[in-house]
Amino acid sequence: xxxxxxxxxxxxxxxxxxxxxxxxxxxxxxxxxxxxxxxxxxxxxxxxxxxxxxxxxxxxxxxxxxxxxxxxxxxxxxxxxxxxxxxxxxxxxxxxxxxxxxxxxxxxxxxxxxxxxxxxxxxxxxxxxxxxxxxxxxxxxxxxxxxxxxxxxxxxxxxxxxxxxxxxxxxxxxxxxxxxxxxxxxxxxxxxxxxxxxxxxxxxxxxxxxxxxxxxxxxxxxxxxxxxxxxxxxxxxxxx
Length: 240
Known about the structure:
Layout: E1 2-3, H1 14-26, H2 39-46, H3 50-62, E2 66-69, E3 73-76, H4 82-90, E4 94-95, H5 96-117, H6 120-135, H7 139-157, H8 160-172, H9 176-184, H10 188-206, H11 210-234
Antiparallel strand pairs: 1-4, 2-3
């Protein structure tokens, strides 16, 4: 099975909206003063629901990419990241197995590097993102916060080459097909397990234990891969 990033997305796909907004920020498509259009304007521009736009903006704000001023609007909060734009240009087709294998190759190393440089403030933000992932009752929102945590770890690692690779992988995970698959892989038990694993990763990062963080991230991704394999087996498909 392969999946590609489509031109059209469903109106409630918050993950795809989030990726679109990132690309627009990277390409500096907004006003010169950094002001973003209103939720209604973004909803019309992207042909999606305002709820999906609102969720995506919440994640961008938590990541520090945008900030809001009461009565003034929403503004871009940091310099554009060229790696995300490059990822958007080179993203193509990839199978589930290819994407999961790529994550296993890249994200554990990013976790290791993150442990070497993360500040106390960054650790606090990671825990906040992990907590939001666990406490939200909406599966779509849970996916957004989960992705935000992994992306924050990747950014904190401070390696632009690996961040570009991560951005490409992340791009491939925003289609409706991928979203539906990940939602099937989530349930009350798995959410608790994922939160426990997220907490372990952050604990190792906070203690500066790069090897521990790398192993914990690898365990987390392998847990997700096994869950995806079970879903595919139930559907009579192979992870390929």
